[in-house]
């Protein structure tokens, strides 16, 4: 409650030249702030223990916005016919803390908006402000994004950047997060660690320029801004009066986006925020930090010691690694693993020195090249980076057992090669590429229904083999249409065992890192992070829906209730109009009863309760036409 001191100090002055109200306020804390009279909390935003939390952890698609309750006059009477706007300055302190540090992030945005509810905003991504890249709202909206997730589709440079958005989620300018120190060097830092970040924004309404500066709390204000963006067009995105505040959103992945303090002024410098007693939100494990004050001295001493030891170790390691890379030596343990070892030189020659022209794609685990071996056979070479020898050895043990998996519906592994800590896996080359290309990138020549059904059956056979056909259960963990490859006979084969792990039958797998692809992940994985046969079945169900409906699992350009494929189909099913979901391109060319059966099978696989999903044996039997379809609930 000590933090209440200055909050909120709001001066509303009558300005003489412009018949508008000047706005100048400081929230050094939000303790006791009242909705509507102090701050306007939209949707899931709440004031919680003196800070504003923008999203709600227990809501799956959550978004929230917090605005200053009255609009700011951005174009006074004197300015109506010019492009000039009101200038303002603001500073605030925010904290972004994902629950799982490897999960995709979202971040938050400082926003000027004509309305507290921008039309078309979706609740999952895009800071709860935009609908999608393809449909920018025809709406005055200007945002400064503090983005902690990378969305390549939007040309995000990385998962830790600051950008300016004009009515469009695709930023007009972005910069990696960091600041320029007093000697002019760029010092990068990560925003999604929970540490408090101090941000300053200056908006020059005469020259139409926005400056954004950020620094970790405790670093004094950098004199050079991180972003300085000048563009007369800014005027188009600002209406006469605008709400000013913050917005954020999240999906399954929990991320706490907090605003701790905020000051704003359109008459002069914004009030300085007193940062001495701001709360700190760090991951649970570092909560001992609260005692930091007392042990700071000891820590520094320890740190120096650790640094010396660490750099010594690093130096040894580096020398060793260097030596390793020079001699492509074979270590004893490698001989245990199956004999098919390729030489690095052969692979380099077969891929023209790993040239970009040979690149087939780059996935989560590394790049894949097309290689032509000396005997003219074509293979795909997947390069996997691994950072420790121990890890590599375990990985090899796994991979070698994978090498023994043989099935007509799996992409066959042919061999491997190691160089330093880089591992190369050699697979059969699949001339027809991946299934998603056939479904989505080929609108002129869509796949016929018979083909689609055949490929789904192939995938089911492959997956059934992994789950039930071997002495160990193999959980694939990353089933998606881009991992289904088509061979020269258009037969579907499951690829990418890079993520798969082996489990003994009946043994409880333990893993703490969630792997997989958004859109295909079973809902229970977010809570328990333990992949199972049922979670594979879920992902398979998503692929089935994708193939039958000709839609991606998450279609951001669709209406809000059509964004998530599984939910959309389930809705149509409950309305009794499931046939509307079927891809128009196959309509009419086949029996709709048959298509409907497969669609319902897909839904049954995506049952939210893992225990009620069918297993691969039943699914396969159904696809082969041997049993009656299940009823999805
Ligand atoms: C705050 O007030 C607005 C406007 O009355 C309302 O829509 C919103 O739900 C309220 N938020 C909370 C958290 O009560
Ligand atoms: C978050 O959402 C849940 C479920 O809707 C609700 O019970 C809870 O009160 C919300 N939490 C806050 C802090 O609003
Ligand atoms: C901004 O909002 C106001 C009030 O809701 C509305 O009258 C005005 O038309 C909006 N301006 C634009 C450009 O949409
Ligand atoms: C600024 O950062 C650079 C690189 O991190 C560092 O070498 C330099 O000492 C820093 N300057 C000051 C004044 O801290
Ligand atoms: C923005 O930054 C530039 C470059 O440092 C500076 O010249 C300009 O005066 C700044 N503008 C404002 C409004 O602070
Ligand atoms: C402003 O908008 C016009 C037309 O939309 C465009 O041609 C121009 O490049 C924009 N200016 C800047 C600086 O982006
Ligand atoms: C900041 O707040 C602390 C107590 O929370 C107080 O002791 C200190 O004087 C304040 N500093 C300024 C500059 O107001």
From TrEMBL:
GO terms for cellular component: plasma membrane. It is found in: Cell membrane. The chain crosses the membrane at residues 290-317. Its main location: membrane. One of its GO terms (biological process) is defense response to bacterium. ATP binds at residue 382. Residues 354-631 form the Protein kinase domain. It holds the Pfam family Lectin_legB. SUPFAM superfamilies: Concanavalin A-like lectins/glucanases (SSF49899), Protein kinase-like (PK-like) (SSF56112). It is an enzyme of class 2 (transferase). GO terms for molecular function: ATP binding; carbohydrate binding; protein serine/threonine kinase activity. Keywords: ATP-binding, Cell membrane, Glycoprotein, Kinase, Lectin, Membrane, Nucleotide-binding, Receptor, Serine/threonine-protein kinase, Signal, Transferase, Transmembrane, Transmembrane helix. In the C-terminal section; belongs to the protein kinase superfamily. Ser/Thr protein kinase family. This is non-specific serine/threonine protein kinase. The lineage of its organism: Eukaryota, Viridiplantae, Streptophyta, Embryophyta, Tracheophyta.
